[in-house]
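The instructor's notes for this session suggest beginning with a concrete chain rather than abstract definitions. Hand out the sequence below and ask the class to guess, before any prediction is shown, which regions might be ordered.
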Amino acid sequence: MIKKIELLIMDWLKSAGFYAPDNHFIANCILFVAALLVAYGLFYGGQWLATFIAKKILSKTGSLFNRELLHKKFFRRLAYFPALIVINIFNGLLFTPHPALHRWLSVMISIAFVLAVFRIISAFLNAANATYNTTKYGGKGAMKGLVQAAHMVLYLIAAIFIISLLLGLQVGTLFTALGAVSAVLMLVFKDSILGLVGGIQLSINRMVRPGDWIEMPSADADGTVIEISQITAKVQNWDNTIVTIPTYNLISQPVKNWRGMSEAGVRRIKRSVYIDMTSVLFCTEEMLARYRKIQFLDTYIDQKQKEIAAFNTAKHVDISAEINGRRQTNLGIFRAYLQRYLEQHPQLSRNFTLMARQLQPTNSGIPIEIYVFATTTEWVKYEAIQSDIFDHIIAAIPYFDLRIFQNPSWNDYQLMSSGLSSN
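After discussion, reveal the predicted structure:
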């Protein structure tokens, strides 16, 4: 049939006055242009048909991944193949007698095949990424970085195939030649390679994910990770500034990740008040009588007194001197009060560590540390809970005949000066 059409075109050219030895080649060129038009129609018709069939099938049994394939134009890109096959067939039928042109067209068609395969695989990867982002793990890993790395590998492979086609070399020969310049390539693509390694490790080990609150002092980063790509990660600080960090640095440098706090739904309060050591006293009966009026302490004091009395009696302690044996102190009772106060607090978790403890004395006094977990991770609410607790503690300290240690202020020096002057 093609031969008959070719003869008809040559007769038409002859009748039109285009009689020349090249009429056969001109007829082939006209046929090839017609083949290009047919391929063009097949391409757009194939796109419509592939989309139509895919929609019909997906409307009945379509999964989320299949819908993403449709959305990312995976099925539409399959239409490249029938169009390229038609062009390749006509090239073989029409231009075999013209080796140079036939070879050049074959190379171009082969390159088009490589690019078509690349675009189809790219659509598949994008659909997989979009499907992953809709799962419960979506947005929590460096999936975007992995997809970008896969695209980079595809670009490299496609470039190698295209160069081998243009130069007429075997792909293996080209890979051997690339091995000789691998050191240069590694230097040029150092950031991309490190980013690829970092992205894979971040994704596999789930070290840092978009949405995590991280602290990285070396990069002046303290905020939420908003994006992790192949080469860089973006962190939005709490002052709304954006810090860009090389992805590899997230695994090669110290990073504090607050994800565990967010997932647990609690946030730690770890803060101390400093007690003046000179205000720590053995409790007298009068002091104990006053402390019994404080909520949470009446039962504790009575039980403690019985325990101490039993011990002193068993050890035959001379209690005429306060220093002998065991006695309650105002600081010990204060710690007991704090423990019971914290245990009754409605905004502190009972499922995590909850305690008031005494730390190593320092030049600034005796630290009494509160170590608890608030039942919220919201910053404003957390700070309000912490402030309310320490407001109460600071106000309660004088009720236990204790004093908070603080360095003298200018007002203290003025009072001292006025007292000396009056004397």
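Then share the key points. The domain at 267-281+329-410 is CATH 3.30.70.100 (Alpha-Beta Plaits). The beta strands are 213-216, 221-228, 232-237, 242-246, 256-257, 267-275, 355-358, 366-374.
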